Amino acid sequence: MKIAQEIRAGNVIMVGKDAQVVLKAEFTKSGRNASVVKLERKDVTYSYFADPLYVFVDSEFNPFEVEAESMGDTLNYVADGMEAELVIYNDKPIAVEIPQTIVREIAYTEPAVKGDTSGKATKPAKLKTGFVVAVPLFCATGDKIEIDSPSGEYRSRFKG
Q1: FRET label pair with 55: which of 72, 82, 87, 151, CA 20 to 30 Å apart?
Q2: What pTM does this model have?
Q3: Which domain holds residue 78?
Q4: How confident is the model at residue 4 (pLDDT cuts 50, 70, 90)?
């Protein structure tokens, strides 16, 4: 069981018989050894990579530097102008959350072999970030696809 100081935004907790998602967590203890736990979320846009940090900016162009280990699977999809949400703990970004569905262009994939369409045949497709996604045979280099960001799986061809 977690104590109050360990609860973070994004955690699921039980309140009675109901599951609740923590949107914001803040812990304050007054007394001789005061401690404060503060989590907040901020909408940001990816701006650039300044080795070894990824720089995001908010709507007022305030920069937020995020270390690669805090990026998690977001590194597979990072692109200029990508919108995200930072989870900030004690004024330091600790996690980057991105939308569930990401649209990316296929940088390279082999052409399909004619007649190889039995079942759910797939082939590897490489994104500009180097991340490889298994896509159906009809997908080609230059196509835009929708990807489920948590699982890294192909969803559909982008229609937009």
Answers
A1: 151
A2: 0.70
A3: 40-97
A4: low
